[in-house]
């Protein structure tokens, strides 16, 4: 073989995005002789597992069609060329405000993949291997070997990039104990999983099911166990099929993720970043002994989010403020947390117009109801209020905070592993369900198919059943013979079911305290336990400490994942060019 070989393990949206960047950068950085790109994934290239077209048509995208793109624009900080392309709504010819089905998104991703392959130079050939990769070995300075399931001989690679996406995980101690108890007592226990892949047949009609988790995995579960079993929504009324179980749902917060915002932002946008930008990130990275997220980073994040909120309030809704924006901005910038609170109290008369991240994070903190029935009424009122607010432009500071969240996320990617709390907070505020899904929740609640359990939900296994309780209705408990953990597995390297990552870790790859694969933030090279980047191994995605906000993103928001894809593509192409030169010499 005279050409070079690149193996990409994972052909879903992240692998597709990397391939698009390889195609964009190859004319500048790689002139041959020849390049074989091997994509290793048992699922279809483009959509991969999560967005494959072979899934229920009832499952939707979680973003407006106009807010989904796989293509770079001038807002992305990259060294390679910008290659614009259509958003999902432009490609599909649908309403930009629509929430498309995931099968349509899968078709879009397949088209992006085909376009990326077609854009590669003529001497670059792509091979798809519909198998699982089991391990990578080989000398640091030499060709790598990628071993595939059911294939006796390895793929030889001058460089390997892991774009594995979301991973299955072995259960933790609590989940193992709950599973054991379920087996011994004839109960149903469904651990954290991808809901579209989960066998829900053990959840029987009419029976109570405890559900722990109130995010997007719950929304999918709710849909598959109601409409997926023949029920239907008639306006604001749910018409049951009689095959639904009764879902008792709770979580740490006890409320669903906030609804997607249903209006656009007119007028001046908040000038971001302001208090958490590249200079602040560099200062954090340069701290002797490192940084602590809560102590060192969160104050900057909170100040940035508050700045965006008040910029919008003062510039778009000045009648709800007492002083000029220029005066407020100057004082806000100079103030510490206590001084800012006093400033806001004096300048913003209505508490509903103030930014309170603690109240946003824990809306049921201190809230108590005397019975589960009172809780149901209270939760319906909470969801109705959230829907009204998130679709009312009079509350447009909420949209400004959303834009600040995107800005902050793009900066925090540079810091590496900042712990799970931030990602949960971001998802709760910025990645909630479409408004129609929350209206469906209300209809299901009124029909008695969905019951709320409140905040700080705990689950015990005793007396032959599962029992759930929470802080919102003190002393109340619900019993059931079925428990569903409605959340994705945490992508730790130690507990992943992915054999390749486990072998990589055993071979010396470094892992962060939160169990993520450590990579060089500059180009995604895998780090060893001494902090040295591997010259030929790269990794991108949620299993790494440089995880971005997603393999696709909103147009014109900087796309951290696009920046990462570009940096890794360029580093891999430069490596391939250098190995080709050495071989030729």
UniProtKB/TrEMBL annotation:
Residues covered by the FAD-dependent urate hydroxylase HpyO/Asp monooxygenase CreE-like FAD/NAD(P)-binding domain: 7-166
Pfam families: NAD_binding_9 (PF13454)
Residue ranges of the region described as Disordered: 530-563
Highest taxon in the source lineage: Bacteria
Entries under InterPro entries matching the protein: HpyO/CreE_NAD-binding (IPR038732), L-asp_N-monooxygenase_NS-form (IPR052189)
PANTHER family reported for this sequence: BLR0577 PROTEIN
UniProt protein name: FAD/NAD(P)-binding protein
């Amino acid at each position: 073989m005279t050409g070079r070989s690149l193996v990409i393990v994972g052909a879903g949206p992240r692998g597709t995005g990397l391939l698009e960047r390889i195609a964009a950068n190859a004319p500048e950085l790689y002139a041959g002789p020849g390049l074989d790109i091997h994509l290793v994934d048992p699922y279809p290239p483009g959509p991969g597992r999560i967005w494959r077209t072979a899934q229920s048509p009832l499952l939707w995208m979680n973003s407006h069609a106009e807010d989904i793109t796989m293509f770079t624009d001038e807002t992305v900080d990259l060294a390679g060329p910008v290659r614009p392309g259509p958003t999902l709504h432009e490609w599909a010819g649908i309403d930009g405000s629509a929430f498309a089905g995931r099968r349509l998104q899968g078709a879009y991703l397949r088209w992006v993949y085909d376009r990326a392959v077609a854009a590669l130079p003529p001497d670059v050939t792509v091979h798809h291997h519909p198998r699982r990769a089991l391990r990578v070995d080989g000398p640091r300075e030499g060709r790598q070997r990628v071993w595939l399931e059911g294939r006796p001989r390895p793929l030889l690679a001058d460089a390997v990039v892991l774009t594995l996406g979301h991973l299955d995980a072995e259960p933790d101690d609590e989940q193992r104990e709950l599973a054991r108890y379920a087996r011994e007592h004839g109960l149903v226990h469904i651990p954290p999983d991808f809901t579209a892949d989960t066998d829900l047949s053990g959840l029987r009609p009419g029976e109570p099911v405890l559900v722990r988790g109130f995010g997007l995995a719950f929304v999918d579960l709710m849909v598959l166990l109601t409409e997926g079993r023949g029920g239907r929504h008639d306006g604001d009324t749910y018409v049951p099929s009689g095959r639904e179980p009764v879902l008792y749902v709770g979580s740490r917060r006890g409320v669903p993720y906030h609804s997607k915002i249903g209006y656009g932002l007119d007028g001046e946008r908040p000038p971001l970043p302001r208090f958490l930008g590249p200079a602040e990130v560099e200062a954090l990275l340069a701290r002797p002994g490192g940084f602590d997220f809560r102590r060192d980073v969160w104050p900057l994040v909170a100040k940035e989010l508050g700045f965006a909120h008040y910029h919008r309030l003062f510039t778009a809704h000045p009648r709800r403020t007492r002083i000029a924006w220029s005066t407020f901005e100057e004082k806000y910038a100079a103030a510490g947390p206590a001084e800012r609170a006093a400033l806001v109290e004096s300048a913003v008369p209505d508490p509903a117009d103030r930014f309170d991240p603690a109240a946003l994070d824990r809306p049921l903190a201190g809230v108590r109801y005397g019975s589960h029935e009172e809780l149901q009424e209270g939760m319906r009122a909470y969801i109705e209020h959230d829907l009204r607010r998130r679709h009312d432009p009079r509350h447009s500071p909420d949209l400004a905070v959303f834009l600040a969240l995107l800005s902050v996320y793009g900066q925090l990617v540079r810091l590496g592993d900042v712990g799970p709390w931030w990602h949960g907070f971001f998802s709760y505020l910025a990645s909630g369900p479409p408004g129609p899904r929350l209206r469906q929740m209300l209809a299901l609640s009124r029909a008695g198919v969905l019951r709320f359990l409140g905040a700080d939900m705990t689950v015990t296994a005793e007396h032959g059943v599962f029992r759930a309780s929470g802080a919102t209705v003190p002393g109340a408990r619900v019993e059931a013979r079925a428990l569903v953990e409605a959340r994705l597995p945490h992508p730790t390297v130690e507990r992943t079911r992915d054999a390749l990552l486990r072998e990589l870790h055993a071979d010396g790859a470094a892992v962060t305290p939160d169990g993520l694969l450590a990579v060089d933030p500059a180009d995604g090279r895998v780090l060893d336990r001494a902090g040295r980047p591997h010259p030929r191994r790269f990794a991108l995605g949620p299993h790494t400490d440089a995880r971005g906000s997603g393999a696709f993103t909103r147009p014109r928001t900087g796309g951290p994942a696009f920046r990462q894809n570009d940096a890794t593509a360029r580093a891999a192409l430069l490596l391939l060019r250098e190995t080709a030169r050495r071989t030729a010499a």
